[in-house]
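Dear Dr. H.,

I hope your travels went smoothly. While you were away I took the liberty of generating a structure for the chain from your last submission, since the lab meeting agenda had it listed for discussion. I wanted you to have the full record in hand beforehand rather than looking at slides cold. The sequence, exactly as received, is reproduced here:
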Amino acid sequence: MAQHSWGTTFSGRSPATLSEQPGARPSAAHRLLSLDIVLALLALAGGLRVLYLAAAAPALPSEAATVAHAYALGHLTPFTDAGGAGLSRFGGLQLSAYTMVSDAFGRSATALAAVRETMLVAAVVGTILLWFLARRLGLTRWAATAAVLLVAVSPLALGLQRLVVVEHLAAVWALGALVLITTPEAKVRHDVLAAVCLLAAVLTSPLALFLLPAAGWLLVRRSPTRAALVAVLLNLGLGVAFGPAAAVLRPHLAAAGHPTVADWVALDPAWAVLSSFALVAALAVAALRPFAVSGLLLVGMLLVPGVPDTAVLALLLPVTPLLVAGVAQVLTRQRRAAHHARSGGRTGLVVAGTVFVLVVGVGWAYGFTGLKPSPDRSGPLTDAQGWLRDNASGARLLVDDAAWAEFANAGWPTGMMAAPAACAAVCPTAEWAVFTGDATGLRQRYPALDGALTDAGTVALFGSGDQRVTVSRLDLPPADPGASTEDSARAHAGAALAASTRIALSQDAAAVLRAGRVDPRLIATIAALAALQPVRITAFPEVPGEESAGQPRRRVQFTGGEDGVAAFYTGQRDLFRPASVARTRDGVLVTYPLFAPSGLLVPFSSP
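The corresponding predicted structure, in token form, is as follows:
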């Protein structure tokens, strides 16, 4: 009869035969059931991650630089981040390799979504490997399913595994190695492949070193001689990677910052409670002890200053659900084996299970609300790129790491863009600047960048909060002392136009005119056109991004007398020549270029 004490494996066998499954060879029906379960779990994990792929928060500051590195490697383009990415070259090669093979950049709406797709694939592969590892450790089919469900559905896992963090790739390599190590009747080739996978995990992220105790423990249990073989191969590879090939293969960690452990735990408090309990309780279960030790070592890294919490949690994520399911299986078997009344034991299990489901359900309901999947797959950077394409195509840009990848993926020549790292001494010549969020930290790090942005004028704003993108014009001339009267001059002239009997205005158009929010070139030409023919204006359409930046509206929609309006504006010259005169279903749309010259309107001062 199999034992279920805390000091044995799940099957009651000795730890040395940990990878052997109890009982006879599974029947075809059981194998089909397992296959159905795995496919259902894959569909659930993959579908939820597709849904939350474009969620705006939690956001990782170093993610943008990682995406830019992946794009640059795949397109053989140089790129230097502004610091904080800490990307391992081997990790970046994996990201760029997937995007090239799958044409992710060509298929995705944004560069960020293209590289995040790699994380989605890694999560799905990790789901498969976690299932096989759980089964080979002796977990029942339903315990293994519970372990995978905790990863597949947890809001914390959904939020974390969508971010471009190379530790997700390292976790897949480590899980692959553990599956190979626990293969029944493993051969030497399995050990060699396991050593290669462990080496790949460490080269992807140095934090994967803390998963080596679990792998080594399992190997020693099975065969000390075979464990020595894996150790030799692994040390040989690490010696090369950290020695002669250190410049190319030595892994690096990203800089610490937000999100923190508290930010992630807020998405799924139940995960934190269950994981903490399982990490300690699993020390008493022989089959789980190696994983508990590695997990506790990773938890210890959360206390080390400078180590990114997100990276540590990415490696902990597949470990703790395995421990939770394993401990739950042991406790359940002990309960059944105890000398309690049959009905009383069942009632207790039902009550405990119900309470557990309610607690997790309440936490997940809050966590899913916090993730907020975004229906907009483009984002403010795409809007900014479109605005610049229409108004400054081919110009030289000074951009942050996030804008560099998105603009490059949209076709902006990389030679016409400079990242903040290029401003170490003197910023390259540029006409426009595009920055996401608050650029204060970058300006403090690079004084040359601060100097370049000092005289910049904000022309367009897209998005809000940390996702706000600011488009600025560099090297603007000093402000004219009389420029302060420009707003009042536009308002005075606009009010005069609105009062004209030859100009018919919609209510919104009249309000915009009277508020002084119309380009002076439009005001002057509308007054001249009204002297030739009656004018009907339905709107002064806003150019997206410019209104919030305080720019006057430079478009007008005419209706009625379209032939005269079109002839009038196409005949304008010099300062009053429009950027476009377009016939639309609603009439004629006239658009002027940016930056009206000062002095077109007579300054107005109240008596």
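Two observations you may find useful: The radius of gyration is 31 Å. The CA atoms of residues 540 and 556 lie 4 Å apart.

With kind regards,
E. W.
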